[in-house]
Specification:
The complex is a heterodimer of chains A (about 950) and B (about 70). Helices cover about 30% and strands about 15% of the residues of chain A. By secondary structure, chain A is α/β, with parallel strands linked by helices. In chain A, a hairpin with a 2-residue loop joins strand 1 and strand 2.
Chain lengths: ~950, ~70
Amino acid sequence: MSMTPEKDFGTPASPSTQMVNLEIDGFQVIAPAGTSVMRAAASIGIDIPKLCATDSIEPFGSCRLCVVEIKGGRGMPASCTTPIAEGMVVTTQNKKLADVRRGVMELYISDHPLDCLTCAANGDCELQDMAGAVGLREVRYNPAGENHLRAVKDESNPYFTFDPSKCIVCSRCVRACEETQGTFALTIDGRGFDSKVSPSQNQPFMDSECVSCGACVQACPTATLMEKSVIDHGVPEHAIVTTCAYCGVGCSFRAEMKGSQVIRMVPHKDGKANHGHSCVKGRFAFGYATHKDRITKPMIRKSIKDHWQEVSWEEAINYAASELKRIQAEHGKDAIGGITSSRCTNEETYLVQKLIRAGFGNNNVDTCARVCHSPTGYGLKQTFGESSGTQNFDSVMKADVIMVIGANPTDGHPVFGSLMKKRLRQGAKLIVVDPREIDLVRNSPHVKADYHLKLRPSTNVAIINAIAHVVVTENFVDEEFVKFRCDVGSFNKWRNFIADTRHAPEATESITGVPAADIRAAARLYAGAKNGAIYYGLGVTEHSQGSTMVIGIANLAMATGNLGREGVGVNPLRGQNNVQGSCDMGSFPHEYPGYRHVSDKATRELFEKDWGVKLQPEPGLRIPNMFDAASDGSFLGLYVEGEDIAQSDPDIQHVHHALRSMECVIVQDLFLNETAKFAHVFLPGSSFLEKNGTFTNAERRISPVRKVMPPLAGHEDWEITQMLSNALGYPMNYSHPSEIMDEIARLTPTFTGVSFEKIDQLGSIQWPCNEHAPQGTPTMHEETFMRDNGKGLFMLTEFVPTHEKVTQKFPLILTTGRILSQYNVGAQTRRTENNVWHAEDLLEIHPHDAEDRGINDRDWIGIKSRAGETVLRAKISERVQPGVVYTTFHFPESGANVITTDNSDWATNCPEYKVTAVQVAKVSHTSEWQQNYHAFSERQMELLAKE
Amino acid sequence: MHIEKLVSMANDIADFFNAESDKEIAAEGVKKHIQRSWDPRMRKAIVKYYQDSGEGLSPLAADAVKKLMEMG
């Protein structure tokens, strides 16, 4: 809870295992070879003064404050750039060194405002600390001399200011932008006295390439780069480590507080997913938690045409329970269900599925992973035996060839994207498989894809088969790996299948649009690598063959032996913060926690015994099945926690019809989101800052979520679920989420070693964590796969064209994706300053297609599919290929899902968001759906207002 | 349930298992997938549809639904 700053060792740790002995100020020190003298000293508590050094970036040796003397050596070397050596004898303090340091500091301070008492960094300023450390008592230089004190402050960024009058030109910000973030937006402009930090070409921050990750602010030792929240509210007084609630990277943050007010979110250096880095969302976009739109009182209404009535918690819960009971009494126990979300903690998700299975008495539970990574769960379970990625994020630093398929890490998973870029700058090769030119292809400094396989949307399986065909027919198969680690019978069958000439790159070229030579070259590059790693995203899963593609990726990795060690693997980049966790927790209708099928008698009996209730052996309804059943009149009650199905799900008019058809929709959320506009009960939920629990990120890392402020509506979400369960007559009596985790551990073989106590002790844990792996499992399948026989299974992956055909009427393919500054349905980020970067969804269209239709940049254009029509502004872009248009889906009024269809993955019903045949044309007004949406939405806001 | 959608879903599942040259194994795969992932009301609806006409079901999907029916 204290505000103890994180220890800064000055330079990064050395990965060497060879140890070196030396003496510093008379003390014996042992440190890994390659460690700097500065870091070695810091490791025994000797803090050598420094300004330009910090341990998140490589040493620079510029400030000369960290000079030391080395016995037998010449001069006074900078300790940050001097590596330790065996037998070295170092002196860090003597009069000569002190004089030099005071002289250096005197020069710095001679050109620095002496406004410490009113400075925003007062008490949190390394320059101030160093002035004290070196004993600076006077500045002899004439203050009227030439200086930078009148330099103009740049306040263009919504979250931080840049005050060059306070800059000491240590270059920490420049280096952080390069090394940590990999954006290279900053530089030092000018020479000598004229040297200054310059965003891009001496532009304001907002006009530069800056992505507002905050790395520069974090690195700045003065008040030059400073959070506006600190300027407004002062330096925080305590900090609590918690986990970000945005993407699947799951960054660890210190919530730095004043009382119960979050002053800033600072990336936690010890966070194993992010190592002290952040993106604009996690670092700055937390204001939604206290936004005026938050609803903090429970509400009920009979009909969605009625005004909302604020009621007590007891009344709201009792009303919800009575309605659910009434529906079950009238229409059967299977007439209700629930949806949990990847925005919920593990404990909350576990409790929702328990409520539904044990309290509702059916298996009609699903989660938003249905619409994103359910094919990952299916495909990897079938082939590897476990529904998860195989590596930790750090593994990428040992990859020699990286294949990114249908993912956009720099936008969707920015902190991992930065790590990947670091590895690429070190020389790893890159293959991008994507219909669109993502930043990694050629728009990231010093990063360029070796191959961009710019395929036609919906042809993923044809591509992966073609790559595998090259592997098999050009003798790239890792025969040893296959022989000892895989099911050889399935491999032989697959080998015959994939070797057929119909899978050859030359045969699939007409399907994919990718030149055969490029596919062959990319396949050789991946298969020939010492370590080849595959990273993929929703561009793989959100297809009618999403599961087939995941299986195809798994086949390829097994065939080439790229599994079971660092630097390789199959790595799904999960969308939301807790996609992995929500799936792990048994929120699919056919699986208990730990991915065990509900029909499995032994597992079912385990839960029946623990929960004290008989459970159903049949799978329940998936989300799209719930909508169909609602439209048919056999599904009438729904409890939705944390998911906005009325915006996020495909063919939204069908979803809205289903919601209107239900008799009781209970929404538990922060805001009156799109789904809540169709609801009869609103239960105000809590943000990630208001509750305890855990999130599990894309690398299976279970990280702590800790309450830093009281829930605005009075209850953490798990408590609300518990109240509903008790009102329904199924008792729950947890007093803390740690008890829920204890139950999960008790009932789930891959979690038996997990507890809040151990998470606090280790910081985070990668499951499986059990008697075989008490500290967790960074790399999966090292010795055997998790299937019953321990062998990886090859499966046949025939390419099957999508039903969504391009025709004369619908000649273009619409595909969708994300942008850095907004997050999914935007409920959180739209309520922050992030809107300055992305205030509306646009339709990217290739210049040729635009010209054919007389469309100019920023024109309003109608987009029509077989499902519906909406209107967006045009963005002419060569990032998309001719015949393909692209949009994001962060604003409800955009109606992106009015256009998407109900086509879905064959195995999991994950929607085919990435492929919709459309026509576009210039228009002058919004679509009929948008007009209806606007009217409905306005009316719902009126009904929210007190009568 | 919308039977057209269930037919389409069954056919999509069959399309995947169709890669298997042994059609008995393929039909068993389709059946097992439906059995393990479809809610009973959906299974009941597709079986009834198969009994009524089965029109639109691909041969492999039809074989799988027949197996479902025989399971009872």
